[in-house]
Amino acid sequence: MAKRLYVVLLIPVLVALSLGAFRVKRSIDTLQDAEDAVRVAQLVQTANKYASDVINERDVSVVPLLKGKRSDSAIAKARAITDQDRKDFDSAVANMPRSTRLLKRVAAVRTGEKALTELREDAFTAKLPGVQTEEKYHLIQHPLMELSNELGFGSSNQASFGRTLYALSLTQAAESLTRAIGQRVLVQDRDDLADGELDVQLATFRSYAYLQQVALQEFAGAGTSEDMDRLDQAMDTARKKGESLAAESAQEAEDAGKPFVAPPPLEEMIQRISSGATAEKLAAEGITPESFFTASTLAFDAYRRVEVQLSDTALAKAEEISDDARRDALVNSVVVVAAVVLAFLLAMWVARSMTGSMRRLRGAALDIAQTQLPALVEKLSQPRPHPVNTRVAPIPIDTRDEIGEVARAFDQVHREAVQLAAEQALLRGNVSAIFTSLSRRSEALVEGQLHLLTDLEKNEADPDQLENLFRLDHLATRMRRNGENLLVLAGEEPRHRWDQPMPLIDTVRAAASEVEQYERVQISGIPETLVHGRAATDLVHLLAELLENATAFSSPRSPVRVTAAQLPDGRAMVEIHDEGVGLTPQDFAELNRKLADPPTVDAAISRRMGLFVVGRLAERHGIRVQLRPARAGYGAIALVMLPYTTLAEEGAPAAYSNL
Question: What are the boundaries of the region Disordered (predicted)?
Answer without folding.
Answer: 237-261
